[in-house]
Write the structure tokens for this entry.
Amino acid sequence: MPPTRLLLIVIIPLMVLLAAVATIPVFVGGGDNADTPAAHELKYAARTDPVVVALPPTHPADRHKVAEKLDEYITQLPTLGGVIARPDQLPDDQKTRLASVVESLFGKPAAPTVAGIDPATADRFALRPQDLASVVNHYRQSCSNCHGSTGNGRGVSGLYSFPHPRDFRSGKFKLATGAGVGTGRPRFADVMTAIKLGVPGTTMQATGLPDAQVRRLAGYTVFLSIRGEVEVELIKALADPDEAPSDIEAEAKKRLAAVLKKWTDADAEVPLTHAVQPRPEAVTPEYAESVRRGQKLFTSAQGACTSCHTNYGRTPTYRYDVWGVPNEVRNLTDKERHWARTPEDFVRQLKYGIAAAGMPAAPAGLNDQDLADLVHFVRELPFAERLPDDVRREVYPK
Ligand code: HEC
Ligand code: HEC
């Protein structure tokens, strides 16, 4: 068959079919059965999964219980000393009221909105109604399979991957480089970076889309995050008899304003003063000396890195992330880096930690030179041939 005929007879109809399947609404409950309401009637599903209020004081021993059974896992955290709030156990009248208040602030998938947002903030985070509406279908087709249609990180295929797809509803992200770096609240540019370049070594692929499109996807991600965070805060307040608000609507507006302020505050740039060298092509004696000091610090009590990165991270070790999920402490002999792309990223990571991931800030006693030494060491660690002989023998004993 000539290629043009093949294109007409097989490929084009197949593409039309695929496009049709991909647009089947998957909002409520993720199903596409005969009861699926028409697109304009779809609602964002109300949250039913447990909210992590406080993590257990102990460390998780493994991760295998989590896949597929995320909610069951989080539900049992109180037996380990954690605290959770259960939206499914709120009285029915509160559930109904909560759902209608959240919908009145954020709309439905056919017309997402952030009620009362000022134009400058809406513009800054791509949160204008027309920005949001223009990208709903794109998100539904490319993202909700993993991140879920409400941004709950519980899309049908996502839970099988580890780390799990981000649950946007905590307002916490692993990539945060601005004023929110200490708490894990990102800059808008960070959200765009994750979407554009992906997260190497995870199922989060680079989209490589043009900036205008990435911007809108980032806006929708932030929208879902804000919506989810306001909902979470109301659930926590309602679940706590001492705090339960009498006027949920007024409370919701107050919380929304506070969440928006957190995003705006975190969007401020924080310049780094540290002078970390770019990776030199050939290892100079001074650089080797810095790598050596870095290795000593890494394995010392002062650096405290090995309390988690045992055997440079080769021994499987877990820490809870802010979502209540056992997160793997990274094997730093692995060349793949999730977040650090530049020397500045490395410094920031060590100086401030990765709050959402359970990676703490470096001990306060370390000075700028110490941090630079650590960065130089960690950066060279996977490349045995670039380590000074004595360091290599220690890190990679035969
Ligand atoms: C195949 C599953 C999958 C798909 C599809 C996917 N993601 Fe992700 N995404 C992930 C995983 C897994 C992570 C978390 C990586 C980690 O924790 O290290 C992630 C992380 C992110 C982050 C970074 C969060 C942070 O903590 O800094 C953003 C933002 C994001 N995804 C947005 C999107 C958007 C927008 C789309 C659609 C264009 C999308 N993702 C599609 C799996 C997916
Ligand atoms: C309390 C446990 C803990 C301690 C202490 C700790 N880390 Fe980590 N570290 C983690 C976890 C968890 C991750 C995985 C982050 C993620 O989910 O992407 C990580 C990730 C990293 C990464 C990889 C980041 C990337 O881009 O992939 C580097 C580099 C790193 N740690 C270096 C250090 C250094 C250097 C020290 C000592 C100053 C240290 N860590 C101390 C838990 C810890």
Summary: DSSP finds 14 helices and six strands in the chain.
